Amino acid sequence: MKISGWGRFPYIESEGFYFETRNQLLDSFRKQQECIVYARGRSYGDSALNRHVICTDRFDKILAFDAAEGIVTCESGVTLAEIIEAFLPRGWFLSVTPGTRLISIGGAIASDVHGKNHHKAGCFSTCVVSFNLMLPDGDIVRCSSKENPELFHATCGGMGLTGIILEAAIRLQPVKSAYIREKVIRCKNLEDVIQRFEDNFDTAYSVAWIDCLAKGDEQGRSVLMLGEHADSGRLSPPVEKTLSVPFTSPAIFLNKFSVSLFNHFYYSRQPVFTDGRLTPIHTFFYPLDKIGHWNRMYGSNGFTQYQLVLPKEAGKEGLSVMLDKISNAGLGSFLAVLKLFGAANSNYLSFPMEGYTLALDFKIQKKLFPLLDELDKIVLSHGGRVYLTKDVRMSTEVFRSGYPQRHVGHLYR
Ligand SMILES: Cc1cc2nc3c(=O)[nH]c(=O)nc-3n(C[C@H](O)[C@H](O)[C@H](O)COP(=O)(O)OP(=O)(O)OC[C@H]3O[C@@H](n4cnc5c(N)ncnc54)[C@H](O)[C@@H]3O)c2cc1C
Fold this sequence. Notes:
With about 425 residues, the chain is an alpha+beta fold. The protein has helices at about 20-30, 80-85, 105-110, 120, 150-155, 190-200, 255-270, 280-285, 315-330, 370-380, 395-400, and strands at about 1-5, 10-15, 15-20, 35-40, 50-55, 60-65, 70-75, 90-95, 130-135, 140-145, 165-175, 180-185, 205-210, 220-230, 245, 275-280, 290, 305-310, 335-340, 355-365, 385.
């Protein structure tokens, strides 16, 4: 079979092994010389690609729920969507969730994903109580921050390199409603949006859509979305209408002019300020899940997402240099997102560090990789790093400089 990450670049020929029980896995795992887990393939780049892959989508049972503590135990192929569907009507929601619910628990742990509340709640690993990990020799060990802590810290964010995550216990947060009380603020430039993030630090969720092509006084103009769980309303979200991109669109329609035009209309359409509107949880957290196969929009060559984080000290200056480069190259995209991160955790390869993270989609084209090399230099010179789960072309040097913790322990030399 041919597989790719969400960016549809690269595609590789691969042999997949599906399993439903530990024993089936053990049989196959011992025979495989080299393999990696391919779960829901929502990581954009090549992290889950190999000639032999272990597919977890049939290893997908919810095993137990402790209703007093809000702890769900499940197999690693269960998706966030399945957890939400089962537990939101009972008043429980994920404590940390990325911008799609169509990923597996194993993928959430392996990338140590973050959401719009990183500044308050940290990464996904903060709600991982424990998991069982199958090591390359077939041994199964239980890991938590207290039990085999080194393996726990290497596996959360470790991109599947330490073994196969089997069952995991995840702590959910109690909620009273399937709605978010949302505030939207239009920000006139980068300085304005950074100031608003800081002013709203105590708000649970914050994220900004940013116009990556705007220049001059308007550089970094954004729409900041803030949210808190509503304390009233139904616990079942309204049924969502979904659309699907039926075929791969010609990438020619995505260019500097169409993106600029879209950005102009999107920005202008937003109210200058809205406070307190009730937004369904799915609309607030997962707007892109409404559009099936939206990754086909970038054409047959596919696309990549470049996500970087710059420490707070780099501040507006660092982000401004990045945005200058991107807008001068004219290669930006509709999807450019800015988020505020809180402190880094002690996992060796987790991406977040205290500062600002910018994520941008780019269609694959000849001029792109030299631009990304330039962006890497800016990121490193400001003490930042690039997110592994989105990456498809990072050099060893960029990895080494961005992730100094990789030397901790004996697992990553
Ligand atoms: C629309 C969209 C929005 C997103 N938003 C965010 C966001 O806001 N924040 C964020 O952090 N990420 C975000 N992501 C990225 C996504 O959350 C991660 O890439 C996630 O890891 C994908 O999970 P998956 O189940 O699809 O795993 P895959 O993509 O299949 O695999 C990802 C990695 O996890 C490893 N892995 C998966 N399962 C296991 C297992 N059982 N044992 C060991 N290793 C395993 C794989 O080997 C691979 O290295 C987004 C992705 C999309 C498409």
